[in-house]
């Protein structure tokens, strides 16, 4: 359990560092807290799911997202596209909760969307 916590800490630190570098070169977003842009949250979800399940998924993109306040933090609902090791892509329904500006983030749901 400690090793998973250490890995998650390193992952979160890398995401925060990436967010800081993005702020320096990207446009200013005054309505969105630093480090909480939807693509960053989607990458976090794919990475945490892949590490937890031993899956070799790679983030491709996010096509739909909704964010709203929930229990002292923010809840992100999104549709994320990820590729497996063979390059085949699939869409996933993702739910992430977190408190912007902290390391308190949780992946609540990561379900493959079945296409008819």
UniProtKB/TrEMBL annotation:
A single MF term (Gene Ontology): cysteine-type endopeptidase inhibitor activity
SUPFAM superfamilies (alphabetical): Cystatin/monellin
Keywords: Protease inhibitor, Signal, Thiol protease inhibitor
Record's signal peptide: 1-21
UniProt key word Signal: yes
Keyword Lipid biosynthesis: no
Domain Cystatin stretches: 37-112
Family per similarity comment: Belongs to the cystatin family. Phytocystatin subfamily.
Stored PANTHER family: PHLOEM FILAMENT PROTEIN (PTHR47116)
Protein name: Cystatin domain-containing protein
């Amino acid at each position: 359990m400690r090793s998973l916590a250490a890995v998650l800490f390193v992952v979160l630190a890398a995401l925060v560092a990436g967010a800081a570098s993005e702020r320096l070169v990207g446009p200013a977003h005054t309505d969105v807290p630093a480090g909480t842009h939807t693509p960053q949250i989607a990458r976090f979800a794919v990475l945490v799911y892949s590490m937890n399940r031993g899956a070799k998924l790679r983030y491709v993109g996010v096509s739909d997202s909704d964010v709203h306040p929930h229990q002292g933090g923010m809840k992100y609902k999104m549709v994320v596209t990820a590729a497996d090791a063979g390059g085949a892509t699939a869409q996933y329904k993702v739910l992430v909760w977190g408190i912007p500006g902290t390391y308190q983030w949780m992946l609540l749901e990561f379900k493959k969307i079945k296409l008819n």
